[in-house]
Amino acid sequence: MADQSLLTESVVGWSIFSFILLAILAFCWFYIRKYQSRQESEVVSTITAICALAIALITSALLPVDIFLVSFMKFPNGTYKEWAANNVTRAQIEDSVLYGYYTLYSIILFCVFLWIPFVYFYYEERDDDNINKCLQVKNALKYTIGFAFVCVVLLLIGAFVPLDPPTGQNSTQWQKVQYLFQELGSSHGLYALSFSISTLTLIGMLAVITYTAYGMSVLPLNLIKGTRSVAYERLENTEDTEDVEHQIEKLKSKCSDGRPLSSRDRNNLRELESRLLVLRRRGRHLEIAEKNCCTKVGRALRPVKILLGVSFILVALLFTIALFISNLDKALHSAGISSGFIIFGTNLTNPLNELLLVLQPVFPLDYILITVITVYFVITSMAGIRHMGIWFFWIRLYKIRPKRTRPQALLFLCMILLLIILHTSYMIYSLAPQYVMYGSQKYLVQPAASFTPGNATSDTTRICDANAPEDQCTVTRTYLFLHKFWFFSTIYYFGNWAFIAAFLVGLMVSCCRGKKSVIEGEWVLRWCLPDSSLLST
């Protein structure tokens, strides 16, 4: 009976995960195909981008399965179910999730440090009109070796720098080396992998602060405000065109008698002629946009866009409030900076944490909510990247535009999204720490004053927290991966404050901006017309 229950619980959890896996693959294919350039489309870069993004999303999808398995080991009264009463059985279930994380995180390291850099530099060498394939591969491998070296260094740092010092302070150097190898073997490489992934998550935190925080404000407000009227823009563009033509005629009239124009007038004439070309091209774009079916459908769906924008901004505010409460709770009740601001129990009511705890017993409602949160982060991150472009400090590297994104930019995009999604695990922990650590687990506590041997009626149940006995509450594998090194948790904590500040600044900037043009970035036209070359004339 116990084995049958165990099989049923496992099948349900992994069946939902398989369904989500198929949905993720379909989403990644559509997402990448939407943004890649039709003129510079490459099979290798497309496959690389789809696989990298899918691996990141699958890793995030494993989080609810992890929480589901540890939660369903117990009844609501705090006692273990029959199939989970054995420590060996619980260890086997935890190991299955652990091996899943090992596999996915190893693939992520492979993508970040080997696969994506190689494909990126391969196409960078191709930009130099180099037709020698062997030389392209050689140069790409040369740059990729540098990334591989960084990966090896991170793995060694994580593997050979244990968290606890050796017990014997007077040990010889050989004994210390033996201790390091014992630590590596006892943890099965967990520290090495955790350190490397935490480093990538740290980079993802910077991307979240830069792109996601801004996207969470600009996307809903753009949906609410909408675009400017096409008819009004055409009228405005016509007036500007006539004004520029009048200025050009006025300048040309100065040389009607054969006298040459001054250098200042010649410069002004060139600038006016260039501006006239831009205005005429803009006029053609507006004319096409006015007749385009997508523009008409967009006007018809205006109420839906407003409703969607309001929903997005409410979700953004909910996340910000939950993150603020969680950080405030850590600041007031955590063990301090030296412990990574770990909370020993939930002291302040967190709305998102409470919502997840309510939904968790009714599987897969929490799975759906976590998936929605992950997709929301992807959409808002893409909106931020779409509006800001890809920057390296103050240098703008690429623009991300539908059907016009180069292979190199697409790989950069997937790299950033992969790091952002990698950081969402910690973001979700920050939004709902109790849920991510223990799910809905409870444990039995017997009051000392009313202790009666053999009497279970005096037992009370408590929600699992950091003060619970180790044999009564099972910590998720996700939490162990994210919190092996306290200094990363400390950096993430301050990063959450930076995220809140960036979101508020982005919200104010987005509110101050007016409506965008209907042909901004030529999005509608490029997406709807089969031949986008019509717009470049």
UniProtKB/TrEMBL annotation:
GO terms for molecular function: cobalamin binding. It is a multi-pass membrane protein. It comes from the Eukaryota. The chain crosses the membrane at residues 12-32, 44-73, 102-123, 143-163, 190-214, 306-325, 367-397, 409-429, 485-509. The keyword ATP-binding does not apply. InterPro entries: LMBD1_LysCbl_Transport, LMBR1-like_membr_prot. It is found in: Lysosome membrane. It holds the Pfam family LMBR1. GO terms for cellular component: lysosomal membrane. One of its GO terms (biological process) is protein localization to lysosome. Keywords: Cobalamin, Cobalt, Lysosome, Membrane, Transmembrane, Transmembrane helix, Transport. Its main location: membrane. The keyword Nucleus does not apply. Belongs to the LIMR family. LMBRD1 subfamily. This is Lysosomal cobalamin transport escort protein LMBD1.
